[in-house]
Amino acid sequence: MSDAQPLLPLRLLDVRYEVGGRRIVDGITLELEHGPRTVVLGPNGSGKSVLMRLCHGLLRPTSGELRFNGPQWLDGRRRHAMVFQRPVMLRRSALANVAYPLALAGVKRIEQRRIACEALERVGLLPFASQPARVLSGGEQQRLAIARAWALRPDLLFLDEPTANLDPSATQAIEAAIQTVHEAGTKIVLITHNLGQAHRLGDEVVFLSCGRVAERAPVERFLRSPASPEAAAFIRGEMPWT
Amino acid sequence: MNDIWAAVDAAARLVAGGDRHLFGIVLLSLKVSLSAVAIASLIGLPLGGALAVARFPGRRTLTVITNALMGLPPVVVGLGVYLLLSRAGPLGELGLLFTPEAMVVAQSILVLPIVTALTRQIAADAWTEYHDLLRSLGAGPLRAAATLLWDIRDSLLTVVLAGFGRAAAEVGAVMIVGGNIDGVTRVMTTAIALETSKGDLPLALGLGMILIGLVLVVNAAAYVLREAASRRHGSSAR
Amino acid sequence: MDMIGRRLAIAGVTLLAISAASLAGPASATAERFITVASTTSTENSGLFGYILPLFKARTGIDVRVVALGTGQALDVGRRGDADLVFVHDTAAELKFVAEGHGIGRREVMYNDFVLIGPQSDPAHVGGTADVVAALAAIRAATAPFVSRGDRSGTHAAELRLWHAAGIDIESQKGPWYRETGAGMGTTLNTASAMGAYLLADRGTWLAFGNRGDLRVLVEGDARLFNQYGVILVNPERHPHVKRADAQAFIDWLVSTDGQQAIASFRVAGEQAFFPDANAPKDQFHE
Question: Can you identify the CATH homologous superfamily of domain B2-232?
Fold first, then answer.
């Protein structure tokens, strides 16, 4: 990254999000720092996805403050990116998909190609570079989405249940890709329902219940001995993680 | 049945005989309708995209009006354009009445709402799928709309073809503003109307068959283009 | 977008641009020498113009563009200045046109006649008479189906004069037996053919008409069926853009020996359709 102010930590101050009279995010105060891989857990409807979209700027909070430490935009590129539950592929080749955000940021054509190829290689998709992205399998498309989000080397990568619709082998490939991104220096914030995945990929857990942070703890401690009753109930109800 | 066979016979003779007169009429029909579709698409595709993506007060009203204008009666448009271009009208100085240019103007007005309204609908549907992603990747509103329109290009091709179909098939507007002048503003549809009024029904029907054949050829060409492109980029989402 | 997409897009846009540009090129013939004539469906549909206009062009190099409408509409076009000449067949309306200053230099060019046409079955038993007014009265009495142009055309005007002569106020007398198409002669003939109805038609269009069904001429020869055609120059003082010289050249040609002979020699199905009378002495046929 460059010598601008570091993007993180991201500070949330009593953030609320209300729609149609319902409070989906009901007062969250939180700080996300560079470094540990953060896993967001919680039952359905607890506000995980909305919280992530608020952080990424896809939604605007009804009240409260969301502040990054440094500028969100640098050299024409956004410094945080997101991978969605269902990958949306542009109707063009895999390579062109990855190159798209680079083009948006004003990167030169030759550079675009080089960076995109490198990103594809890192997630193991280089052989598919010239294929239409839409003929790839679900797992391959999701890996492509990760490569695309990562192409601009964001400081922070949000992932909203990236393996929810994938089979175990595809899930494995995605987890490997996420690990690669992390090792290259990007902060990971991941929503998942898969406790095993949380254990494999996470360093800390932020547990949401009814739109609030009910608990925050290192992953090992959270899964073995959750402090809050909601967390305990949640873990009991999910698939076993060991 | 006799009439229909006579029509097929008339059509076959005209086409096989390489009738120069007919060729001129076909060429003019294509030029007028294709030009009108080009103009209407140049304006309507981006306009439809903008209506789908942008948020501004009065957007819903504008959408309803655009949809309603799809039902503009061609003869009313023809009358309106006639009054505009008539020497007694505001744009009379241009001397455009009873020329192919006037016909292009009238047909462009007819086709524009169709292209705009259909583009808007298809783009709006696609936008629900694309907008999170495009914003996430950092696309500004103009760039996002352009990317969206390019991604749904298959469907937009169908929209353009619908516009062409409307232009090629209408007779009310071009009859009034063109005057059906032999060798100057006579197109397939007005020629058919003329032959019908002369009571030469088999010839009129034969010309009708040729017109349908023409539109089929244009659509087939577009289909082939689309298939070739589709194989390259994978199937569309919709 | 990638290379192929870009190439296709360029090809497509180029094709459409060529289409549009070619319209502005020589094909639209704006550099050509031409005049615009607002005329009637009877002169166009009979094929008269197709026959005489090439002769005029060969003589003078002037292209005559004919917009074929009903007489009422043609005169309206003239009033607006959208044509250089009008060539119609409703003497009363033409004289009014000139009197109101919309046109100058009216000349009579040719005549033919109207005919009363009806189905073979002839329910009102009018076939064979030479008294068209009595025939119309009979049709009304029998409430036999009758189709009218209803469009302010020369033919329509003639029809209304004949109803009047029969002492019938057609406005109040029309019932379901009387159908108005509001359309040209050909369309009206098609309707009458399909309905098996009576109608008044000009001989020129009838001779060239191809969808007669079982319609035949039932009444002809009555002096009141006389159909005079006149040509008028649109007043250049009102409409300075009118191509006065070329339009006058056309009028002069129409009434000249050459033009009159051309008109006389025009045949439809072997019959002469129009009779030149530009230089005929005024008699009871010419108001």
Answer: MetI-like (1.10.3720.10)
